[in-house]
């Protein structure tokens, strides 16, 4: 039986207001926005309208039938969720099941699909079909039912694109609400109707990720695709270590490789600079203009620099050091196996890493107006407010066998001069072997030993640490002090991983490039400075209060007035404040396999040594 279109439209719009109510309540509830007709109003409705017109087979009737028969749900599948389907139903119902897509809107949708390339996405992967073919069916098919089905498919295509660009149109998980906001259903309905009217591109703006890192990665994606279009770079053959002042046949290839990615030497007083990579305005414009400076500057260089292209000179060492810093390597200026491997990563591999980083940010969702961001591969933690980074420092993260997890939570409080209650796993793996070997270890490192069953303190020398049950029978507690493993302060966001931020007495480790040394928690280079920053925007705690607590030497808890979002991520490509991308080492091997260049350069930029490609393989040797 078919009901009148006006009654169906009211039913579909009203049904959305019942979502979230229990079945018992929902079946009796009356949506506030739907006026209940009086007896007189009902009696005045013609019988034909109350019963509904028979199916006439026109486009509107077919759309109505498909919408009410859950064809939208079938087109969208389960991945977008019931809320998205309901928003699409509302969009059709609000216009009495008229088609949403005009010719202008459909053309705009095709253009939008092509622009997904800028997001590292492919329209066929997102939508599942070619949009242009559906557009042709929507306006050229003879049967109204086919045109109606095509209109729903265009709607599904736009919703899938919006979901892909935003990272999701609704939150189905149990994440903290303030960290997982998604476009409201009313916004989705309005934007869908605007898209159909002709602005499919403009309506996508509210759904895009508002994130400085994401914006920088979008630009980097275009830049590295431009490098690829110009041929990328050639492989540098493996060989002996090359240090400053050494000569090696591969140095011309090294210069060409660095120049291809935008590294160039500025002969001015500020030393070497990385030349900006810019999108060319024509197909013949060089990607990077490399200037060797004014003739007088070049003339002042040593004869070796001008006549011996195989010399690893100081300017080239400075550029190589910068490359190493931007790739998570020791910045020693030495051409060694790990640096060679980073140099020989292909441009396609770097593009895919940028694309993966963009997808990770889309899935991350809203970060908050003020938040802490700890990125594991870059060994950094940052404090952000209103889209600006206000504080940054180095970190030490979990070693590969004890990975730091990536998740989001909220910082609740900080502890000055914390005690360290050694977890059983760390006691068993790290402390017991030392206690067995050295009976004075506990006393020297400031550990107290407690019997777990009674809570009584016992002498470390009285415990049989070789007993397999020792780690579970006894608890090791390290009092506050200079030797305490947590340093002078820890920052807590209660979570199931028992991970938190804290200081460390082992400050010398921050000098290293690879800082994966912890058992899972994140050690901070400047923990008090981060706590000060957290308190500086707080209504309850203050920086003075935190510093006084630390200086007291006493174990004190300081709770923040409002929780602060904290995001632990594993993203191997980030951009700095200048927009330059950094490609970090995949310390936990979570990314797809990195691919290497398999071709040598022309004779003028490659070694004269007879190193055959077949003998190299595709992966540089260690």
UniProtKB/TrEMBL annotation:
Keyword GTP-binding: no
Pfam families: PG_binding_1, Scaffold, YkuD
Annotated L,D-TPase catalytic domain residues: 370-547
Domain of life the protein comes from: Bacteria
Signal peptide: 1-26
Keywords: Cell shape, Cell wall biogenesis/degradation, Peptidoglycan synthesis, Signal, Transferase
Gene Ontology process terms (BP): cell wall organization; peptidoglycan biosynthetic process; regulation of cell shape
Pathway the protein takes part in: Cell wall biogenesis; peptidoglycan biosynthesis
Family stated for the protein in its record: Belongs to the YkuD family.
Annotated protein name in UniProt: Murein L,D-transpeptidase YcbB/YkuD
Organism for this UniProt entry: Thalassobaculum litoreum DSM 18839
Phylogenetic lineage: Bacteria, Pseudomonadati, Pseudomonadota, Alphaproteobacteria, Rhodospirillales
């Amino acid at each position: 039986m078919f009901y009148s279109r006006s009654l169906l439209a009211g039913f579909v719009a009203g049904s959305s207001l019942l979502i979230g109510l229990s079945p018992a309540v929902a079946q009796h509830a009356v949506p506030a926005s739907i006026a209940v007709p009086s007896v007189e109003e009902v009696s005045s409705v013609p019988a034909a309208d109350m019963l509904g017109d028979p199916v006439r087979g026109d486009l509107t009737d077919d759309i109505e039938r498909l919408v009410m028969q859950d064809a939208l749900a079938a087109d969208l599948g389960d991945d977008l969720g019931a809320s998205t389907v309901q928003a699409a139903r509302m969009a059709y119902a609000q216009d009495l099941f008229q088609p949403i897509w005009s010719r202008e809107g459909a053309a705009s949708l095709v253009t939008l699909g092509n622009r997904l390339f800028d997001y590292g996405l492919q329209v066929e992967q997102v939508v599942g079909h070619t949009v242009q073919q559906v557009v042709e069916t929507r306006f050229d098919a003879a049967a109204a039912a086919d045109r109606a089905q095509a209109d729903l498919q265009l709607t599904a295509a736009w919703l899938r694109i919006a979901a892909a660009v935003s990272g999701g149109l609704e939150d189905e998980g149990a994440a903290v609400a303030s960290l997982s906001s998604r476009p409201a259903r009313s916004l989705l309905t309005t934007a869908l109707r605007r898209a159909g009217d002709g602005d499919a591109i403009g309506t996508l703006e509210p759904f895009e990720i508002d994130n400085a890192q994401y914006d920088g990665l979008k630009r980097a994606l275009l830049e590295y695709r431009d490098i690829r279009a110009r041929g990328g770079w050639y492989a540098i053959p493996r060989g002996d270590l090359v240090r400053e002042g050494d000569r090696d046949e591969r140095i011309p290839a090294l210069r060409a490789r660095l120049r291809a990615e935008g590294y160039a030497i500025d002969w001015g007083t500020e030393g070497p600079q990385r030349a900006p990579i810019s999108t060319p305005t024509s197909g013949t414009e060089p990607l990077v203009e490399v200037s060797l400076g004014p003739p007088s500057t070049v003339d002042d260089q040593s004869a070796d620099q001008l006549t011996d292209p195989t010399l690893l000179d100081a300017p080239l060492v400075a550029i190589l050091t910068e490359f190493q810093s931007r790739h998570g390597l020791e910045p020693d200026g030495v051409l060694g196996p790990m640096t060679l491997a980073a140099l020989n990563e292909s441009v396609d591999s770097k593009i895919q890493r940028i694309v993966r980083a963009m997808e990770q940010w889309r899935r991350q969702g809203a970060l908050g107006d003020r938040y802490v961001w700890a990125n594991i591969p870059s060994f950094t933690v940052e404090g952000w407010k209103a889209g600006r980074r206000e504080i940054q420092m180095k970190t030490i993260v979990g070693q590969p066998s004890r990975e730091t997890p990536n998740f989001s939570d909220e910082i609740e409080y900080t502890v000055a001069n914390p005690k360290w209650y050694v977890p059983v796993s760390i006691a068993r793996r790290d402390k017991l072997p030392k206690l067995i070997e050295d009976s004075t270890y506990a006393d020297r490192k400031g550990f107290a030993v407690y019997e777990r069953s009674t809570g009584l303190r016992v002498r470390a020398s009285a415990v049989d640490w070789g007993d397999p049950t020792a780690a579970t029978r006894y608890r090791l507690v390290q009092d506050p002090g200079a030797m305490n493993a947590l340093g002078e302060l820890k920052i807590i966001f209660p979570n199931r991983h028992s991970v938190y931020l804290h200081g460390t007495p082992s400050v010398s480790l921050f000098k290293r490039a690879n800082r994966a040394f912890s058992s899972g928690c994140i050690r901070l280079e400047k923990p008090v400075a981060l706590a000060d920053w957290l308190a500086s925007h707080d209504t309850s705690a203050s920086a003075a209060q935190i510093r006084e607590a630390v200086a007291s030497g006493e174990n004190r808890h300081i709770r923040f007035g409002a929780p602060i979002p904290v995001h632990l991520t594993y993203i191997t490509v980030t951009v700095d404040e200048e927009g330059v991308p950094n490609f970090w080492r995949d310390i936990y091997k979570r990314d797809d396999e990195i691919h290497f260049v398999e071709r040598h350069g022309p004779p003028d930029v490659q070694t004269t040594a007879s190193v055959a490609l077949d003998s190299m393989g595709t992966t540089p040797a260690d």
